[in-house]
Specification:
Blueprint (H helix, E strand, L loop, with lengths): L2 H6 L12 H8 L6 E6 L5 H6 L4 E7 L2 H13 L7 E5 L11 E6 L2 H4 L5 H11 E9 L9
């Protein structure tokens, strides 16, 4: 089954309906860099929207057009301007972005990649991150902060 098929059939158990609590906390406490932020494999884009602000321009990438439709709906409902939060559709590992990012938020992208493409992920991620930028990864959330 393709990612688009999963979205079309509403078989998206990974879609939690919101960003993980730790991301919300990091944003609320001002612990993440400002500037350009990339969220590969963003799905509905909750994390893109959580990260978006006047000081942080967030770009999400997802392979499923249906996910992008949901993102646009959520962005409009949240009254978040397109210049703060954007989404592109395509295979992130095959995409070139216009300039490097200050931060990459990695939560579910790496685990969704076929193991034989993980070296490609590492090279692509390195190429997308500006010198001195931050790769922030949530590897295995086992608990809420509450």
């Amino acid at each position: 089954m393709s990612w688009e098929d999963a979205w079309n059939e509403s078989r998206t158990p990974w879609d939690a309906g919101e960003s993980p609590p730790i991301l919300k906390t990091l944003v609320d406490e001002g612990d993440l860099p400002e500037g350009r932020v990339l969220v590969p494999g963003c799905g509905s884009g909750y994390d893109v929207l959580t990260l978006a602000s006047p000081d942080r321009r967030a770009l999400g990438i997802d392979i499923a057009p249906r996910a992008a439709e949901r993102f646009e709906q959520l962005r409009e409902e949240g009254d978040i301007p397109p210049e703060h939060a954007e989404m592109r559709v395509g295979d992130a590992l095959d995409m070139d972005v216009d300039e490097p990012f200050d931060m990459i938020w990695e939560y579910t992208f790496l685990c969704a990649i076929e193991p034989e493409r993980r070296e490609d992920w590492a090279e692509w991620t390195r190429a997308q991150l500006r010198s001195g930028g931050e790769l922030v990864m949530l590897m295995f959330p086992v608990d809420d902060l509450d």
